[in-house]
């Protein structure tokens, strides 16, 4: 059908006068009642106004903390592969995650935002004088890249992890290593399954942990 409609050769000469075409188009497409106010349409459904305002503001640190606290330790991690336990054990890291969440809503005090909020005279990046948007501050400032500040920020995340692991190791050294006992099962009896505790499982198995980091 499309081939029949559009595939044919399109050429020829228009023989009618312009006035005739104008009149035809006017008669076909003109709405003489277009200026008439038709009033509200009674067919439209008018739902009542919602009495609870939808909260579209960025999450607060407290909300993020409560959500992470409520997450099950055994639940599978998301696409990042980082289980919620990491955020439960590292409050500093959780705070960093929260800041990244704020960045999604673009409500961090970047120079461009501060300028919009009337808190700064200029939206420029103080280091390179380009426009200091969030994207620029986080990953696009050539001066920051040249000075190795992005690497420093990356290492701060590693440092937060290292601090938490160090604290956990110090704590594990004060605890007694649990005796490994084999639970024998008598003939005819069934073995009882003991769910392993998820808290400090690995670190509690020894007291001579050594942890080396270079950040
Ligand atoms: Zn810059």
What does this structure look like?
Helices cover 42% and strands 0% of the residues. The chain is built from nine helices and no strands. The model has no long low-confidence stretch (mean pLDDT 86). Bound molecules: zinc ion. The site of zinc ion has 7 residues, from loops. This is Reverse transcriptase zinc-binding domain-containing protein.
Brief sketch in words of this structure:
It comes from Nothobranchius korthausae. The protein is mostly helical and 215 residues long. The chain contains 9 helices and no strands.
Keywords:
about 220 residues; mainly alpha; 9 helices; about 0% strand; binds zinc ion
Query: Count the helices. How many?
Result: 9
Mean of residue pLDDT values:
86
Question: Distance between the terminal alpha carbons, to the nearest Å?
Answer: 68 Å
Present as ligands are:
zinc ion
What is the chain-wise order of helices and strands? Answer: HHHHHHHHH
The computed structural class is mainly alpha
Indicate the proportion of strand residues: under 5%
The percent of residues in helical segments reads 40-55%
Shape: elongated
Radius of gyration using CA atoms only: 34 Å
Layout of secondary structure:
Elements (H helix, E strand, L loop, with lengths): L1 H5 L11 H12 L31 H10 L13 H6 L1 H14 L6 H6 L17 H7 L1 H5 L2 H25 L42
The structure holds zinc ion (ZN).
Zinc ion (ZN) binds next to loops.
């Amino acid at each position: 059908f499309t081939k029949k409609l559009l595939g044919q050769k399109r050429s020829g000469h228009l023989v009618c006068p312009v006035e005739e075409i104008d009149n035809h188009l006017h008669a076909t497409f003109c709405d003489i009642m277009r200026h008439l106010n038709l009033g509200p349409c009674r067919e439209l459904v008018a739902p009542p106004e919602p009495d609870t305002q939808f909260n579209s503001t960025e999450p607060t640190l407290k909300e993020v903390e409560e959500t992470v606290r409520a997450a099950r330790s055994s639940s599978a991690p998301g696409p990042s592969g980082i289980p919620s336990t990491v955020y439960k054990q590292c409050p500093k890291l959780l705070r960093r995650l929260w800041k990244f969440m704020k960045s999604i809503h673009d409500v961090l005090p970047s120079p461009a935002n501060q300028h919009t909020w009337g808190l700064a005279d200029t939206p420029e990046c103080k280091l390179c004088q380009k426009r200091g948007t969030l994207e620029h501050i986080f990953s696009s400032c050539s001066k920051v890249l040249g000075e190795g500040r992005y690497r420093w920020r990356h290492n701060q995340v590693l440092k937060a992890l290292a601090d938490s692991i160090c604290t956990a190791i110090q704590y594990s050294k004060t605890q007694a290593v649990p005796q490994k006992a084999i639970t024998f099962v008598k003939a005819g009896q069934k073995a009882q399954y003991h769910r392993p505790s998820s808290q400090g499982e690995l670190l509690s198995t020894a007291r001579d942990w050594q942890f080396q980091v270079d950040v």
